[in-house]
Specification:
It is built from three helices and no strands. By secondary structure, the chain is mainly α. The relative contact order is 0.15. Helix content is 91%, strand content 0%.
Length: 128
């Protein structure tokens, strides 16, 4: 295969690698967002538990409903987080594969350039 064709393939591999990295970054962002939401819910629940004096809302049963809602929301967020983590694991494998292809093509391009240079030197130095 010619050096120019290999360079074109390398460019495609680099683009594919960048696309896979972008997908992984998006999933990492989603994971971070979900973890932040979970932390905020945990903090909110802990603050309401830490209150020493009962509140009017607590006496009316609103605090119990609030805790149930927090628990329900945490379950939902944990399910979403598990889905994102599974997708992220797949994305990491895809990034590794794309990186491997890119690196292999980069090595092929380097070897092709070296071969081209060697051929040019042979032609230049050839005497009949």
């Amino acid at each position: 295969m010619k050096t120019d064709q290999l360079k074109d393939l390398l460019q495609l591999a680099e683009t594919a690698f960048a696309a896979e990295q972008s997908k992984l970054a998006n999933l990492s962002s989603q994971e971070h967002n979900l973890r932040d939401q979970l932390a905020a819910l945990t903090s909110s629940r802990q603050q309401s538990v830490d209150r020493l004096a009962p509140t009017p809302a607590g006496r009316a049963g609103a605090e119990v409903r609030w805790h149930r809602w927090i628990d329900s929301r945490r379950e939902t967020l944990n399910r979403e987080l598990a889905t994102v983590l599974a997708k992220r694991a797949t994305a990491v494998a895809s990034v590794r594969k794309a990186f491997g292809k890119k690196e292999a093509l980069a090595a092929l391009v380097a070897r092709a350039k070296a071969d081209d240079l060697q051929q040019q030197n042979r032609r230049r130095d050839y005497t009949s």
